[in-house]
Amino acid sequence: MEARSKGVLEAGEAEAGMVIERRFTTAGDNPFDVFDWIEMDVEIRNPDGSMADSIEGVKLPSGFDGVAGKVCAQKYLRKAGVPRALRKVPEDGVPVWLQRSAPDHEKLQTLEGDERMGGEVDGRELFRRLAGTWTYWGWKYGYFASEVDARAYFDEMCYLIASQRS
Q: Domain Ribonucleotide reductase class II vitamin B12-dependent N-terminal spans what residues (predicted)?
């Protein structure tokens, strides 16, 4: 599939694609800044009560305390295989903020072997990963009228996930 690039519009012309109206976020602001974030240790137990797994230092919005935090940590945070250093993969027609990431092997080589990979422990990583994937593919398929609309979609999705409205 080819990435498309948006042309310059003349007055009165309309471009195909979704126009995203912001409801919960403001352009230029971090959608996560409106939340109080807590750090918790999550214990995942088997039906018999024995410990199946534990994740220390999970950072989530305060609304994720209790069962929501446990489910989020257990089911959705990547437990392993996340490179500690990433680089953007340049793609024609894809805004820098939306470009895919790949392991930065040069930077990873400067880290000790056991420090190169890990798991997600911050909900912001998870929420950006999900919203970023949806936005990236929406961009690639031409679903957005403009980059501004793609960014609005990304920010709104991050907010909706963090507020448990999605």
A: 42-164
